[in-house]
Amino acid sequence: MTTTTRSPALSPREVYRDALLALAAEDERVICLDSDTGGLGESFGRRFPDRYVDVGIAEANLFGVAAGLAARGLRPYVHTMAAFASLRAGEQLKLDIVGNRLPVRVIATHAGLSATHFGPTHYALEDLAVARALQDLTVVVPADAAEIGPALRALHRLPGPAYVRLGRSPTPPVVPRPPEFRLGRAVPLRAGTDVTVLALGPLPVLLALRAAGQLADEGVSCRVLQIHTLCPLDAETVREAARSTRGVVTVEEHRPSGGLGDAVAETLGCHRPVPQVRVAVRGPVGTVVRTHEDALAEAGLSAAAIREAALRVLHIQTS
User: Fold this and answer.
1) Mean pLDDT computed over 215-243
2) What is the pTM of this model?
3) From CA 210, how far away is CA 304, in angstroms rounded?
4) pLDDT tens for residues 258-286?
5) Which of 23, 151, 177, 285 is the most buried (most CB within 10 A)?
6) In whole angstroms, what is the distance from residue 37 CA to residue 272 CA?
7) Strand order of the sheet with strand 105-109?
8) Cβ-contact 138, 154 below 8 angstroms
């Protein structure tokens, strides 16, 4: 598969709202719980006023209300920013929702550095570490807007809790025709035999594909796998990639610890240890207001960084 930039970039939040409306029209158990995130009142609240509740900026209470509704047989979808979903309301996520294995879907927006203009209070660079540490929580990170609807439908059928990580602004589509969404399965985006890049999230996936193109020009065959389900991870495909190439690079809009890099290392460590380099957000971020992609580049996540990581993997393997 190859990338395309011909189709317009779509807003993940707008696409998500349409997908939620479609689910609500089919299933009367769907309840929309908001925290003043904006947009849901005008869309979901207007169409289904009896199934829309805005609790205000009170994330812990939001999760408690969701747990109570789920315990009564409803299907709550709760909405807040990723920084607040994982840390400010982390105790309620752990005890009320995950601890009781309730079918609450946490829709965590403004993930990573996508809300960089709001400053450090809104950076979400540790949320995946928190989510991964909570047993029985399904964690999904769509790569583009086209993947949101299918992901939502797949998660709707699950009996337990889920965490869906979305960005803030539109990003280009990853592929012209997205493959069928299969929860817990990696998506092959580019074939390769020298090194494998595993990428999680919209810009990491796009940057990984860009880096693979640059490597191809240098004679390096780079496989790219998109990971949309972090928990449960597609361990079989990850191990196969390690067997069939000379090493792996993980790319994520997250701190190096606790996210995709750790998940891959844990998967490979006892089965087939291979060279692995992590490309993630490192060091201080947000020295000035920048675009989303520029903020990531400043923090060490760029196509150039992925290319260098792939070449380093190959050097480690041959040295």
Assistant:
1) 96
2) 0.93
3) 9
4) 999 999 999 998 766 789 999 999 977 86
5) 151
6) 44
7) 52-54, 30-34, 75-81, 105-109, 162-165, 138-140, 229-231
8) no
